[in-house]
Amino acid sequence: MKSKITLLLCVLFFLTTGAISAQAKNAPRSIISTTALIRKYHDQKELSGMQKGELLELYIERIKVLVKTLPYIALVTKPGVTMADLGIPDDGVHKKILENQAVGTTTFLDTTVEFQRKMMPYSDKGNLIAAILFYESTLKSLHEFNELNEM
Known about the structure:
By secondary structure, the protein is an all-alpha fold. About 70% of the residues lie in helices and about 0% in strands. The chain has helices at about 1-25, 45-50, 50-70, 85, 90-120, 125-150. Helix 3 (about 50-70) runs antiparallel to helix 5 (about 90-120). The longest helix has 28 residues, at about 90-120. The relative contact order is 0.14.
């Protein structure tokens, strides 16, 4: 009797897992990755007090957000917007194009981050700070872009 209950529970578990997995694959995909967010913006004084390793992580984070955002600003500027939200047909062709773009972006970022981790430790701390501030300024300007676009 216990083995039948155990078998039944295992079958139910696998069916439930399969159903959840299938729903996740069919869920609308965001054009801009939902991970393309900056948790906090910094000023020069704050950055100057950080160690180079911390600066490198901020630098890499900002590069990732820019790469995941800038190519799409003519369509959308915020994470979470889907093709359906923009009126783009949510068909196999468009899903494949979006998936291929996501794969290409991931491949590019993997290569870029590997390069950054190996080469940027040799950069000047002041240059890292300037680059972070520049990247943050660029990201903040997206808010201005949104305001211009709403006019």
